[in-house]
Amino acid sequence: MKGKFLGLAALLLCSTVLARADDMPDKPGEGKPKAEIPKSEQSVTQHSVVIDGKSIAYTATAGTLIVRNAKDEPAASVGYTAYTKKDADLTNRPITFAYNGGPGSSSIWLHMGALGPRRVVTVDSGPTPPPPYDVVDNNWSVIDKTDLVMIDPVGTGFSRAVGDSKDKDFWGVDPDIESVSRFIKEYVSANGRWRSPKFLLGESYGSTRSGGIAKYLETNENMGLNGVILVSVALDIEAIFGWPGNDRPYPLILPSFAAVAALHKALPNPPGELEPFLNEVRAFALGEYSAALAKGDRLSESERDALAEKLHRFTGLSADFWKRANFRVRESQFTQELLRGQREVVGRLDARFLGRSYDALAEEADYDPQSAAISAAFTSAFFDYLHSDLKFGDGKTYNVSNDKVGMSWDWKHDTGWFVASPVPNTGLDLGQAMIYNPNLRLLVLNGLYDLATPFFATESMIDHLGLPADLRSHVEMKYYPAGHMMYLHEPSLKAWKADIAAFIDHASHK
Questions:
Q1: Are strands 344-346 and 227-233 parallel, antiparallel or unpaired?
Q2: Is residue 16 part of a domain?
């Protein structure tokens, strides 16, 4: 013990000496030169788009905004694209702040797939052919109902740390919540939007971010929000990622396995109707399956056999596979196993997409067919749109996805208790924001064939927001026959837009 203590002390001392050496000036009397703080930039262009048969004239602003920290020092240059309706009354005109997730993803997916005035055309549930890619006016953009600000968090898009800050300073649950919240506050102040109805819209990890931002803006900045829109929900990370000792995700993903198996006709006894079948799976997952997982090694052989047969009936995976997996199948194993006989892998983000397996004997899928099918089209279309239409970004590097962000992410989250949670659940923050502001409304959008953020896990998260009975009516749940990016499916995009438009209309009026 003494040796270990001395070793730790030596390590701490070494760290201290290194830190002091780093802080020493290169030459006597000279300190490190201060990095020059960049200024905010803007490219403003004028456009119009036809939505629901009406021409909407709008101003597009692509640029960066310098965000200041708690010491009122410049900390980050945050990139964004804003769309504002021309000649609108800003007092009554809603504004929506939107972002994707990752962590480490820019906002191009929501921007060019659903929300913005221009949309990239992709093949539904199949690979989009190579260039030239088609970009068209988005007749289901939201900018007829709300002004829109697409945000790229630090490390993505054009967003970078400035001054004494480093990019890594922003790569964590709580610093990310604070920096995006500060961007929203500064944008609102700079553009005279304090009296406007305000909305947040986040997809995937963006929903995790939204839960924290809603609480931060409501309680720290006294900024009243009208609504929060969650797309493909990841409020409670423990509910969707399985690791040894965490059995919560397995029952919560089971109805999604069942829906996907039914879609691909992989069930031994196909159901006549999907919804009654999924309700049966929901009941089994919360009841018998959860109880069996809780028993652990105490399950008898007869219980194991019976459980494996039921799981086979609900998912199409063999009873033997379920037993060999100890009844705990991850989504990456399911996507590889379901159609293994055809040497096809199922999409994780959208199980309607299929791809060829690299290795027919692999335990887990090597890649996501949905990402492979659309990523080149989205990237090419966005870069062309950014430079040609928005007139911004020449000479700058735009990070579409930054793996370094996710790999360096600090998952700790301040819950207000005496220790930070190592696994975030910002559903608690969102519930507190809705109690703090009892007029705040919530719209939750789910894809039935999304294996990354399963719809039953989302239902569980929403059931545990901790809301009083009278506030539960402020939550709306919507479902689409598509995946994580449900707007890739054009019929779902139409319904998606209609649901968001109705929600914004309702939440914007007293």
A1: unpaired
A2: no
Lookup: tokens for 252 = 């919560």
* Dist. CA 58–CA 144, nearest whole Å: 9
pLDDT single digits (tens) 34-58: 668 889 999 999 999 999 999 999 9
Beta-bridge mates of residue 45 = 60
The Cα-based distances of 203 to 28, 197, 258 in angstroms read 51, 20, 24
Q: Which residue from 238, 254, 237, 241 is spatially nearest to 327, judged by alpha carbons?
A: 254
Q: Are 420 and 333 members of one domain?
A: no
**What pTM did the predictor assign?**
0.91
pLDDT tens figures, 292-322: 999 999 999 999 999 999 999 999 999 999 9
Q: Is residue 244 part of a domain?
A: no
CB 118 within 8 A of CB 153: no
Asked whether residue 87 falls in the same domain as residue 209, the answer is yes
- Which of 370, 388, 406 delimits the end of a domain? 370
User: Do residues 271 and 357 share a domain?
Assistant: yes
Cα separation, 222 vs 210, in Å, equals 16
pLDDT tens sequence across 444-488? 999 999 999 999 999 999 999 999 999 999 999 999 999 999 999
Residue 211 lies inside a defined structural domain of this protein: yes
